């Protein structure tokens, strides 16, 4: 699969706009309600909803900045704690997902961090009814290994995302939904690495091995 950088960037922007539309729209609606509301209790409720929407918007922007963007401010190695804070922030908005971490390294190369974040995103989206999200990562002898497992009822996983991860999705089938998978597949290829996934009725396992520091 070969996709131009411009096309991939455009699709990633579309994905970002799609994911930000709901919390930003909630902010706009909350401000409209607040302008018309006179009851003190209802105004307090509006303020709470505005605070929640603002926090969700900020959490998503921070996440996508590192998952999709150039992530300025970091060197070649990124503290794993940065990625953990970002994933924890998104999962905190979904009480039905239980998140477990197994991190044996303090930092990972930036491409590996991007893969980890996007794997986590796929795992969260695969659990519409909730479940368990397990994330493990290790950097040893110059190689990053990442495993993300989403387990729950009725796993939701678009097979085209899997094809994009494998590099077998035709460029004409690429969409804003599959663009993140195509992006990390290209990153893995540049590192001489490989992405894999295994899908079952009650679990999705995503794995990556990325050589090179």
TrEMBL record:
Signal peptide: none annotated. It holds the Pfam family HPTransfase. Gene3D superfamilies: 1.10.287.130, Histidine kinase-like ATPase, C-terminal domain. Residues 81-202 form the Histidine phosphotransferase ChpT C-terminal domain. This is Histidine phosphotransferase family protein. It comes from Novosphingobium album (ex Hu et al. 2023). The lineage of its organism: Bacteria, Pseudomonadati, Pseudomonadota, Alphaproteobacteria, Sphingomonadales.
């Amino acid at each position: 699969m070969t996709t131009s950088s411009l096309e991939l960037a455009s699709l990633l922007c579309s994905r970002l706009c799609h994911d930000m539309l709901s919390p930003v729209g909630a902010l706009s609606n909350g401000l409209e309600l607040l302008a018309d509301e006179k009851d003190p209790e209802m105004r307090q409720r509006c303020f709470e909803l505005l605070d929640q929407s603002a926090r969700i918007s900020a959490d998503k922007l921070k996440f996508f900045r590192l998952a999709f963007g150039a992530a300025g401010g970091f060197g070649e190695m990124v503290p794993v704690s940065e990625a953990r804070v970002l994933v924890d922030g998104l999962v905190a908005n979904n009480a039905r997902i239980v998140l477990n971490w197994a991190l044996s390294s303090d930092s990972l190369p930036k491409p590996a961090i991007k893969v980890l974040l996007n794997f986590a995103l796929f795992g969260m989206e695969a659990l519409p009814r909730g479940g368990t999200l397990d994330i493990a990562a290790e950097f040893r002898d110059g190689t990053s290994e990442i495993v993300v497992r989403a387990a729950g009822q009725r796993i939701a996983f678009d097979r085209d995302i899997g094809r994009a991860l494998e590099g077998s999705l035709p460029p004409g089938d690429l969409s804003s939904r599959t663009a993140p998978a195509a992006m990390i597949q290209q990153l893995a290829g540049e590192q001489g690495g490989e992405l894999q996934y295994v899908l079952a009725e009650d679990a999705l396992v995503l794995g990556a091995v990325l050589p090179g520091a």
